[in-house]
Amino acid sequence: MPAILTADGVGKSYGSGSARMPIIDGLTLSIAKGEFVSLVGPSGCGKTTLLMCLSGLLAPSDGAVSFKGQVVDQPPIGLSVVFQDYSRSLLPWKTNLDNVLFGMRRVQGMDARAKRARAEEILAAVGLTGFGGHYPWQVSGGMQQRVAIARGIASQSELLLLDEPLAAVDAQTRADMQDLLLDVAQRFKQTCVLVTHDVEEAVYMANRVLVLGPRPTRVVREVVVDLPMPRDQLTTREAPGFLHARHEVLALIRGMRQGQKLS
Amino acid sequence: MTAAVVAERLRVPICAALVLGTWQIVFLSGVVPEKYFPSILSIATAFWQMLADGSVLTAWAQTFGRALIGLVGAAALGITLAILSDLSPVLSRGFRYVSDVLQPIPPAAFVPMAVFMLGLGAKLYAFVIILVTVWPPYLNGVAALSGVGAVQLNTGRMFGLSNWGLLWRIKLPAALPEIFTGIRYAATISLIAVIVSEMLAGRDGIGFMIFKKAFALRTPEVFGLMFLVGLNGVLLNGLVNLLRRAVTGWHLRMMERPE
């Protein structure tokens, strides 16, 4: 599979001179089309900054990000970010349907009616039939995040960058949302990059987990999750492959945390 | 029906009765001479006579029209200044100095110089009213526009909005509820500015009428007109609220919803 997204020697630092604070340093990664890749790392390692750089919302200080072979210097069409803070990312003056339609503003070759039908279809796919007319603040947190996911997909996205999308929803909803995300990612042919601090979630969702080092961060290990799709909350989490991958990632991150404490 | 429910249903007549009753008790006690504190009945009679000869309606229309035009102008100017401040940090600081100096000056203090510069009439009213009314929409606008969150802006940029697009499609809609709070303050200030200007430099309107009647010691008429000024405030606020509900109804409903 060809790479859809690559980062080549990406660095990002804030400030300058003696106050210069490097967040990312010489980070290289490559995401193939159709993959589901999780990014995990110790707290505060710069995961969100990395995602902003990958999305074109933040310009890297060094190196370059490419999306479908084109250097990313602004958010490209075909790539969308699902933010952790869904209540701020959804526009409260628009209904759920209008929020999804807002995501489709750059979609070409569809008239208003076709766009509306497509938006309703995607809302239905995330289980929100009949909620298009509601405002985001009238539905639960899990539903709001599903609207945000639907909006991302509706923008004719091929690559979803998910920034801890489930961190703010309760534990039970989170498990359902994980399965829903996997389902719609497959159904709408989305390549996914998931940033999370939850190692179990990272392994459960992904074909590949990239473990990030402490700040200034870079990829320190790739852990391939050799488990079939679709995943299952009970059997997948008990499979030897899952436990093995989880062990490897957790041990790496724990090692980094202890290293940080000593230094 | 319990007593509480009855009281809730009848709250307007109950409050009116309390106010009017207190007024009448003060009047009957004779603490203030009747000349300066007339009975409810004589105020009502005087008001009715002014209504009947048409003088008060004309004055009301003039005053309310000036307040409304002043408010619309001040809101438009205030929002424009707020947008300019948002676009340029230099302008933002400049406007802030100007507003810090001009804001504490009461409308009455602007009138004498305005008379010399602009003469009596529409220009004077526009100048004084807008100069004192512009600040709440401007200050609220600046605060609201700069307070729009990074996530909302990033969302807009992700879906391809330019800087102008971000302003029109994200920042302004997000800021409108707070701007409307400023416009509501401005409505009251606008009415005050109109009455003051009419009193000091007017040839018509309710402010002018109050001054004329007061010098003629027509106390019941003065109180009647003051009541009308208060009603104007209610009316202007009502209009602002109608517009607010139409434009930012989503925000009102969001605030009202049960947690």
Question: What's a quick, concise take on this entry?
Answer:
With 263 residues, chain A is an alpha/beta fold. Helices cover 38% and strands 24% of the residues of chain A.
Report the CATH superfamily of the domain at 1-73 and 197-263 in chain A: P-loop containing nucleotide triphosphate hydrolases
Instruction: Give the overall silhouette of chain A.
Output: globular
Report Rg of chain B. Answer: 23 Å
Write down the oligomeric state.
heterodimer
- Distance between the ends of chain B: 29 Å
With strands numbered from the N-terminus, the spatial order across the biggest sheet of chain A is: 6-7-8-3-9-10
What is the alpha-carbon Rg of chain A in Å?
18 Å
DSSP helix count of chain B? 12
Work out the largest interface and the residue count of each chain: A-B, 23 and 18 residues
* Unreliable residue runs of chain A: none
General description of the model:
The complex is a heterodimer of chains A (263) and B (259). Chain A is of the alpha/beta class. Chain A has a domain at 1-73 and 197-263: P-loop containing nucleotide triphosphate hydrolases (Rossmann fold), CATH 3.40.50. Chain A is built from nine helices and ten strands. Chain A has helices spanning 47-55, 86-89, 96-103, 112-125, 141-154, 171-187, 199-205, 235-238, 240-262, and strands spanning 3-14, 21-32, 36-40, 62-67, 70-71, 79-82, 159-163, 191-195, 208-212, 219-224. In chain A, the strands form two sheets. A six-stranded mixed beta sheet of chain A has the order 6-7-8-3-9-10, sandwiched between helices. In chain A, strand 4 (62-67) and strand 5 form a beta hairpin. In chain A, helix 3 (96-103) runs parallel beside helix 5, helix 4 crosses helix 5 (141-154) and helix 7 (199-205) packs antiparallel against helix 9 (240-262). Chain A is globular and about 55 Å long. With 259 residues, chain B is mostly helical. Chain B has a single domain (41-247), classed as MetI-like fold, CATH 1.10.3720.10. Chain B contains twelve helices and no strands. The longest helix of chain B has 39 residues, at 163-201. The mean pLDDT of chain B is 91. The A-B interface holds A 52, 55, 57, 74-75, 77, 80-81, 83, 85, 88-89, 91-93, 102-103, 105-106, 135, 137-138, 155 and B 149, 151-152, 154-155, 157-160, 170, 173-174, 248, 250-251, 253-254, 257.
